[in-house]
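assembly run, all chains below
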Amino acid sequence: MKSRAGIVAAALCVASLCDVSWVRSAEQVLVPALFLGEDVLAGWMPVSHDELAPDSAAAAEAGPAADGDADGDASHLAWAAWVDAVAHRPPLPRPDTAPYVVSVEGYDARRQEVILQVPDVELEVDSPVTHRGVLLGFLRPWSRRTEQVVVDGQARVALLGHPQARPVAATWEDGSLRFLVASREEAPTVVLRSRRIRPMPGQLALSRNASALGDTLPAGLALGRVAPQETDLPGGAVALHTRDEPALESLLDPGSLALVTIEAPLEAHLPRRSLQGRLLRTLPGAQRWHLNQGLAQGVNRGDDVIQEHRWVGRVESVGPLSAIVSRALPRRSLLVGDTEGQLIPVGLSAGAWPFDWQPQEGLPVFCGLPGWGGLAVGRLGPQDHGRLTVDLGDFDPNQPVTVLSR
Amino acid sequence: MSRAWLGPVAPDPLVIVGTALALSCPRRQLPWVAMMVGWVRALVLIEPAGGQVLCAWAAMVVVAAVRRGLRRQGRSGVLLGGLLLALVWWCSAAALSWVWGASVIAGEELFWGVLAGVPLLWVYRPSERLAGAHG
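ok done. output:
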């Protein structure tokens, strides 16, 4: 019995280290006692400004409205400009739909599918999904047993080239030739009428108007570039790719997308529930905080925590009556404002920076949540081996926070 | 609570608690006691409890194994027990980090906790009858 109990206890410890969700949730059963202890201690100890929020004193003198509004206006303007850029696309042929920007929740590389967070409305199978005028793929049925696209606020996108993605009527950028882009095992493939006409590597393919055939896909969407058919080998030799049909290389990296555009009914809106909570810090300088809301109040892992117009953190682990909020950088597109008032979407690593752009310390950083709006994140810090660092903005731990969830 | 707790450099009070329990707690209750000590420490540090529980378990088992010898030393034995607990806790955390890659916070605050507990250790004596009856 003793050894069995010991084995069970050791297994639970290992499960905790492996971040098993129900074990991590059970660990937080005692957290309400910490909040109770905090309330008792707060009654004994004098109230002072938190050393982690040095601006809170100045903000308190200036009035909370001034500082919050400045950040809120800038972040909302930044976010609106970003949404307009993401949704940039040719006009939709259907008058009862509109471009709708949604978040990417994940990318299944094995199945070549992207998972989206979408409004709970009827979406059509084979509806196009785009990003900045580039066709990413088409909405597909959630499973083989149903034609339903949206399940629990999520939808799956079959990338261009996926076996379940529909073919696309296309043309070259100069309009010189019409052809079909069909799905093959390795990549979307150009199907030409004549094999004697070979496209040039790097040639851009666009969708064309096929409304006469009943196709409602907008014309002018970028599909990809012709992949090179020769590869240089060491020693000066050249390897020829013996493909009968040239393949297209995608212009987008599906694993790095944060937002895409779908066609949704005009009345669609993304429901986002919010609830108020309080953060408890147990260690100065820690990047994790306890939240006094948990599963019982509807908090989920991955929910965002904000305060006024500032992004504070993300729920990392949820217990019955509490949660742990991590102040790691938000995993979505960051928007950096430059000195000329321009807005640049950037990634953390140097490979994800726009050409000829260099970070400057102190530039403001924003992000946004569809269905909620723009949020201030902080300011650029010094580079760390070719990666951006962001000094997260301060927030007042004595004030309530808002937890956003679907 | 964060104002009362001065941070990683400040003494860790759980070291004193763990030492006292390891010296006086019956052996059969030691695993459960270690689990509570490690669990509470993990809650304060806001990290997975599994690492702290394993470290507390290893440290308290080692101290309990040599408590007869420590008791013969009197008050200095209690202090030695505290240092031994802190050392084993620190080594266990390092081993977990090296083998598993887990991040388990266990630094100099453990040893500061032992030194800060010296005045308390001067008046504390493990219950000889209780500890003697259970090894």
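Residues 1-7, 129-135 of chain B have pLDDT under 50 and may be disordered.

The longest helix of chain B spans residues 75-100.

not gonna interpret more than that til we talk
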